[in-house]
Write a structure and sequence with these properties.
With about 100 residues, the protein is mainly α. It contains five helices and no strands. The chain has one domain (about 5-104).
């Protein structure tokens, strides 16, 4: 399966970068940072080769498969903070500009 997808990685990365730039412009036009306290990620991460993604909408210690470990709510404060504050936006390669306008 990976051999089939591998030739598309550069294209998909470029499309995701294009989506990120459009989101930044659209949200900037709405002035969400100043009016609502929303901080947008900026595209400087790629130049430093740092990958940023949100994989877990529920903190790990809250996921059903890990509840047997016995962690309490106060054990993972940063995970809980991130879970409350982070928002993942669609950025899959097939996403089109009209769909992004709808999301914004």
């Amino acid at each position: 399966m990976l051999n089939v997808k591998l030739p598309y990685l550069d294209l998909w990365r470029a499309l995701r970068q294009k989506h990120a730039e459009l989101y930044e412009r659209l949200f900037g036009e709405l002035k969400v940072e100043s009016e609502f306290g929303v901080r947008l990620p900026h595209a400087t991460y790629e130049s430093k080769r740092i990958r940023t993604e949100i994989y877990y909408p529920v903190p790990l210690h809250k996921q059903k498969c890990l509840q047997t470990l016995g962690h309490k709510d106060g054990d993972w404060l940063e995970a809980k903070r991130a879970w409350r504050e982070l928002l993942a936006l669609p950025s899959y390669p097939e996403l089109n500009e009209d769909q992004q306008h709808y999301v914004v």
